[in-house]
Amino acid sequence: MPTQVAWKLVYPMILLSIGLLAIGLIAAWNVHNQQRDSSAAIAKEVRSLINLESANIECREIRYRLNMFLRTGDRVNLQVIHDETPTTKTLLENTQKELSTASEQDSMRRAIDGFEAFATRFSALQPNVADAQESNQGQLEESTKAQLSELADSLLTQEVLEPLERCLDANQRFIEITNSKNSETAKNLMAGFLLLGICGGLAGTIIGLSVGRALGQSMIQLSVSIRDAAVRLSDARGVITLTQQSDLPGIQTGVRKLAEDIAHVVQQLQQRERELSRSEQLARLGQIAAGMAHELRNPLTPMKILVQAAMEKKDGGLKGRSLEVIYQEIMRQEKSIQAFLDFARPPNPEKSRCTMQEIINNTCDLVRGRCQQQSVELKVRLPDAPVIGLVDKNQICQLVLNLLLNALDAMPNGGSLSVELSTWLSSDTSLIPRLERDEMIEKFHSVKQHRTTIKAYDSLTNSAVRVREWIEIQVTDNGSGIDAQTMKTLFQPFSTTKETGSGLGLATCDRIAQVHSGVIEVESLPHQRTCFCFTFPKLDT
Cα 519 vs. chain centroid, distance in angstroms? Predict the structure, then answer.
């Protein structure tokens, strides 16, 4: 009899475990296939984007050389065009093989046809140029000049470069669509995994209740805790009540095995979820690569033009304004690279006792000149008593400066900009340390309303400390404001509405706020007022 009862309990559990294992294996295989396909698609689009950029640069180089020949008559430019033409054509054809969509293929086909037409007409005009060099002291006929100019303006610009630009736009749209699909897939898989966990728990509960009824009313009621399985299932907590007439250890063993099997399946699903997140990281890497390529390529173009122009002069030197332009572009490039490095590898904070008035005054001095240029009235409101904070001086200066520069960007035609420093005290009620951003904002509102104390996390001592006094810095402007759509992704990396922005300013500010156990809040009314409020604890040394 005990053996029969044990089998009645174990057999349904075995079937349930096998079913969950099968579902888990199917889900794992599906995630693996989607991750592999997504990674391959993203890698292909990144390769095609790099090839498109290279082809675009080569075609612009050929147009530049042709224009330089028309202005200077230097045949070295024609030789460069002659040498680069086959390479560029091959690059265009190879790029076409990497493209996926019909619109990209059509644009690239037009670009290739236009470039082949350019190469044919350019080869036909070369004998005329050679005759002019030998018989007429290097002077070209007007008709030949007109035809060469038409090659640069009509064929290269309209028939080659413009289709390439459309192809680049289509490629970037395809990458965005791929990102959207990956995000949607992640959401669907998350819902599926959650449903699987819930169904597994419900199935176990139903089977347990059915077995209890089958064993009769005379069985002993038993409450089995499944806390360990509930923790691994995130939010599934409860008690399964089983009844049995005899063989109590057998029932306990069956329930324990069920909990272990569910935990094992959930562990597998979590591993598949981590693999899926890797595909999203690759998609983000494609966006970062495109952003870095754009930021690093822009300064190179004017520097390249100035150096080439200097090489063509007899003295071969760079002077005056040319050197100044090159220096400015180098500094801009260095600034962009440093912004990426600071975001990817932030320095450890070096906290010390600092006077907040001094930090704010020094930071405001950096933007007073620009405020005067833009007719912006800068108002600084500071308390008379010194406000001492345990902060990293450079990081707080960077945070305030980023907020000031963003405010000035929103007021190109003048306005009002204010910076206000204040402090406030709380009572003696403690809250939970180390909260997420949204939870932290909610707790800060409670602290302000009820003047309670929060236990903030101190990154220096690696522990929670009791805080009663708070420091608050507000930066307010009456510029263009922030719309609701932008507000949703305001503090996310690479989120920007500026044509020349890297999208790392506010993300860096948010990271600095977290390092100082604080939070940044923002309120904005479009075309009326925007206020950024940075609140952080005043920690004693």
Answer: 20
Quote the mean pLDDT of the chain. Answer: 72
**Which range, 165-179, 274-288, 373-387, has the best average confidence (pLDDT)?**
373-387
Per-residue tokens: 209: 């209740």
DSSP E strands in 190-271: the ranges are 220-225, 239-244
Please check whether residue 221 is in contact with residue 243, taking contact to mean a CB–CB distance below 8 angstroms.
Answer: yes
**DSSP assignments along 227-246, one per residue:** HHHHHHTSS---EEEEEESS
What type of residue is 334?
A: E
Tell me the pairing of strands 239-244 and 529-537: unpaired
Token code pair at residue 261:
């099997």
Neighbours of 198 (CB within 10 A): 13
3-state secondary structure of 497: coil
Whether the Cβ atoms of residue 69 and residue 77 lie closer than 8 Å to each other: yes
Length of the chain: 541
Phi–psi pair at 35, nearest 5 degrees: -65, -40
Q: What angle do CA 10, 15, 21 make, to 5 degrees?
A: 120
Pairing status of strand 454-458 against strand 463-467:
antiparallel
Token pair listed for 84: 């680069």
Partners of 534 in the beta sheet?
A: 473, 520
Enumerate the domain spans of the chain: 2-30+189-280, 349-537
Report which of 68, 58, 59 is spatially closest to residue 308, judged by C-alpha positions. 68
- Determine which of 308-312, 390-394, 508-512 has the lowest per-residue pLDDT on average: 308-312
What is the distance between the terminal CA atoms of the chain, rounded to a whole angstrom? 72
SS3 state of residue 138: coil
Could you report the per-residue pLDDT of 164-206, keeping only the tens digit for each? 788 877 777 777 777 777 777 777 777 777 777 787 677 667 7
The answer for residues whose C-beta is within 8 angstroms of residue 211's C-beta and 6 or more apart is 8, 9, 12, 242
CA distance 230 to 225: 9
Q: What is the pLDDT of residues 55-102, one digit of tens each?
A: 778 888 878 887 887 788 777 887 888 888 888 888 888 887 777 777
CB 477 within 8 A of CB 410: yes
Q: How many angstroms separate the CA atoms of 304 and 347, rounded?
A: 34
Place of tokens 């890297």: 502
Question: Domain 349-537, what architecture?
Answer: 2-Layer Sandwich (3.30)
Report the distance separating Cα 387 and Cα 357, nearest Å. Answer: 7
- What's at 376, amino acid-wise? V
For residue 512, give the nearest of 338, 348, 328, 286 by alpha carbon. 348
Structure token pair of residue 24: 């888990």
What counts of helices (H) and strands (E) characterise the chain? 13, 11
- Residue found by looking up tokens 């520097």 in the block: 303
